[in-house]
């Protein structure tokens, strides 16, 4: 159980809790619970949403969470990682995504969407194309051996940048309030920031700053073209693999992202994937990393990892572990979770 600092308990009669509002630039989150991105595998083979997708997100939005983050969408065919993954790689995806954003907002929630390029964390069978990665190192995944991807050349780097920018424009056209760049769980951008998979010796590798360059260039491009769009970035607290990203790296990255105008940092895990690392236990198993980062940035940080009680969320808010709690599987298995814990 977290220790609550009694001085923070009562701020002039106002107590921070699960139902406290949070102002994020252009909009206000009605409470401190967000549904994190979770792949629903409900899309057509060409990436368009289906009635099942709408039904799925309607259930999630009925939880009363303040922000519903639509699952990872592929920004380019070469970065698709599941056959029935939602797409945002073409303009023909926009109409369906707009229906989805509108449905989420109908429930008073902010609509967010996650943009992903899988890089080496896919297969040629799924992409129909070669896999693009920083250094041609297959992404270590527990229990399976992934393909050896190709090494990105200058054109590939441009393709990644333009694909993320075009996807962000589509998300904006589809009326999403927040766009999240997926740079965690071993997917494409995580491969560029991690020393395990990025062993380049050019402008995009070698030093920590160089490894962070592609992600920051993408942020800057989107900020320049869509200044009013709120950006979130999902980053690893650490890779949870030897020789990988450390919490010190991630703090540095979070500060750079904040300075670049990112509005939310969503802290999860890295190359090891989103599941509970063997060294972590219990409710909020990744929250310690979110807390370390929240202590260094002023923008809201999302904490995650088997969070399922209002008590845990309230204590974490009071002790400044994070500004927002991601509740994934608890809401997925029971959308009434919000009502049960008194979420308003
Ligand atoms: C079915 C499922 C699909 C997921 N898909 C994504 C995804 O698309 N993008 C992502 O960043 N994380 C994904 N995750 C990880 C979740 O966002 C979250 O970090 C994880 O479930 C831990 O939170 P929880 O313990 O509250 O469920 C997925 C998790 C689950 C259970």
User: Sheet with the most strands?
Assistant: 8 strands, parallel, barrel
Shape: globular
- Classify the helix fraction into a percent range: 25-40%
Which structural class best describes the helix and strand composition?
alpha/beta
pLDDT averaged residue by residue: 95
In DSSP terms (H or I, runs of 4 or more residues), the helix count works out at 12
The CATH class turns out to be Alpha Beta
In total, how many domains does the architecture comprise? Answer: 1
Q: Could you please say which CATH topology applies here?
A: TIM Barrel
Which architecture does the CATH hierarchy give at level 2? Alpha-Beta Barrel
| Beta-strand residue fraction | 5-15%
Uncertain runs are 1-13
Terminal residue distance: 25 Å
Spatially, the strands of the biggest sheet line up as: 3-4-5-8-9-10-11-12
**CATH-defined superfamily:** Aldolase class I
Compute the CA-based radius of gyration: 19 Å
* Ligands: flavin mononucleotide
Order of helices and strands: HEEEHEHEHEEHEHHEHEHEHEHH
- Tell me the total number of β-strands: 12
